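for the writeup, i need someone to sanity check this before i put it in the appendix. the sequnce is what the collaborator sent (i think, or maybe the updated version? ugh). structure was predicted straight from it, no edits. if anything looks off just tell me and ill rerun, i have time this weekend
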Amino acid sequence: MTKPSILITRAIFPEVLEQLGQHFSVESNQVDTMWSPEELAQRLQGKVGAFMTGTEKVNAALLAQCPQLKLCANMTVGYNNFDLAAMTAAGVLGTNAPDVLTETTADFGFALLMATARRVTESEHYLRAGKWTRWSYDMFSGAEVHGSTLGIVGMGRIGQAIARRAALGFGMQVIYHNRSRLDAATEASFNASWCSKEELLKTADHVMLVLPYSASSHHTIGAAELALMKPSATLVNLARGGIVDDAALAEALREKRIAAAGLDVFEGEPSVNPALLTVPNVVLTPHIASATIGTRRAMAALAVDNLVGFLVNGKALTPLNPEVLAQQGA
């Protein structure tokens, strides 16, 4: 019996290739070439499924060229690379990998917050440049983290995991802004209180962004929002590029209208706004919040389970547009 054909769009763990090879005819990309949209469409010819990493755009133009495609499985929790409306219209299911990266990402959120507040990057550059010749009372004095106020914008699974760490581990007061308020018991579990975005920005000592990207969340933090923050405050973007206006942030950092920022995501990544590279009071990491071996393996495993579950058994674990399943009677 001929196995259905799938495409793996980026390099991945060897055991993933082995697992998928048990069920499918697999074309892989272990050399990790970054394909153009035209090359991706060509590679997808005859494929019923694709294992993706969140960097490949799936839109109406691509789908029109790939009539046999039935499933695109992201190994990431984010899916702003998917045009879900176009995928639904084409009868193509999208899946992602929620839950498996929550705790690891929350850990990194705190690592980025600590590095930002305590000026770790600045001080390391200073040391490496051979400038450290003596101790002084105010050398790289940063902001307090314990006992301070943390403002979280976006209170889903990751936001709540960060809130637990803040309240229980660092004695922080947690305020948050979310489209829908959490129930009272959940708020009480990490001593959090809801407030408007404007009040959060004015009040918080540290602001952390953990909301999904969409057209409505584009530039949630721009020049006007940065102007509301305390001059002593820090901003951490753990969510998605585009949620922050990176140009406006670079200007605010240069003029020290806020104290510092920590960024794991960027507009137009992997490109980074050049202005951010010229200011010292920012910590920059290359989208690595989920980057532990265990978590990345779990993310890949969930994408595998979605491919096998849907294309072999007719059941997807984490569908993003389940109306496709209804259309197919699955």
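The radius of gyration is 22 Å. The CA atoms of residues 5 and 25 lie 5 Å apart.
thx in advance!!
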